[in-house]
Amino acid sequence: EVQLVESGGGLVQPGRSLRLSCVDSGFNFDDYAMHWVRQAPGKGLEWVSGISWNSGTIGYADSVKGRFTISRDNAKNSLYLQMNSLRAEDTALYYCAKEAYGFDPWGQGTLVTVSS
Amino acid sequence: QSTLTQPASVSGSPGQSITISCTGTSSDVGSYNLVSWYQQHPGKAPKVITYEGNKRPSGVSNRFSGSKSGNSASLTISGLQAEDEADYYCCSYAGSSTWVFGGGTKLTVL
Asked: Are strands B47-50 and B35-40 parallel, antiparallel or unpaired?
């Protein structure tokens, strides 16, 4: 069954911004921490950011710190990633994942391409 | 935040067992029992196969087992099957609300 659905990806010029969204159609969204993980074309997985159930604890990878902001709206069962000052190396498929029994489940991802 | 070290590739014949290693540091793998392993088939989202060291989610075959010793973790797949051919990634909590993945290992079933 479909549970996590990402959106908001697309083609964007370097230096511009993009906001990704992830909606959870399952239950108890507000019981779990949530994460963004990305995968550049043909490359491995890279953890990007995570947020606790109540937004009280947030972490970022060094590669995005100061440029990306994670947030959530438990009333809307939604997770967000505001991406500013985008660079070519941010080009990737961005997955959201719930932190339950490891990272599980995952969405199908939304593709972000940073290019002029 | 450094990437955990995994072999780029491993292979085995059907029915055999293989082990994939994942080497971290005392700041990540060595400090927390929060290592998980993921299987990713081409064009698909990753799927968790072990978490918190040696626990398996419901529905995951008992042919998959995880372990940890010191700063390293391992995934063992026994009774290799053709459908096990995929990319495998380890992941560990690294402190300060951050996580780190391994570079990934491509498993080929001969």
From this structure: antiparallel
CA A9/CA A83 separation, integer angstroms: 11
B88 touches chain A (CB under 8 A): no
A62 contacts chain B (CB < 8 A): yes
Tell me if A47 sits within 8 A of A62, measured CB to CB.
no
Q: How confident is the model at residue A85 (pLDDT cuts 50, 70, 90)?
A: very high
CA B31/CA B33 separation, integer angstroms = 7
Residue A2 confidence (pLDDT):
60
Residues in chain A: 116
CB contact under 8 A, A104 and B51: yes
Over residues B5-55, the pLDDT tens digits come to 999 999 999 999 999 999 999 999 999 999 999 999 999 999 999 999 899
Q: What pLDDT does B53 receive?
A: 82
A62/B1 touch (CB, cutoff 8 Å), yes or no: yes
CA separation for the pair B96, A67 (Å, rounded): 18
Q: What percent of chain B has pLDDT over 90?
A: 97
Type of residue at A77: N
Most B CBs within 10 Å, among A35, A38, A43, A45, to test the B interface: A45
By three-state DSSP, how is residue A88 classified? helix
- Segment A70-82 shows an average pLDDT of 97
Residues B75 and B21: their CA atoms lie apart, in Å, by 7
- Paired strand residues for A114: A12
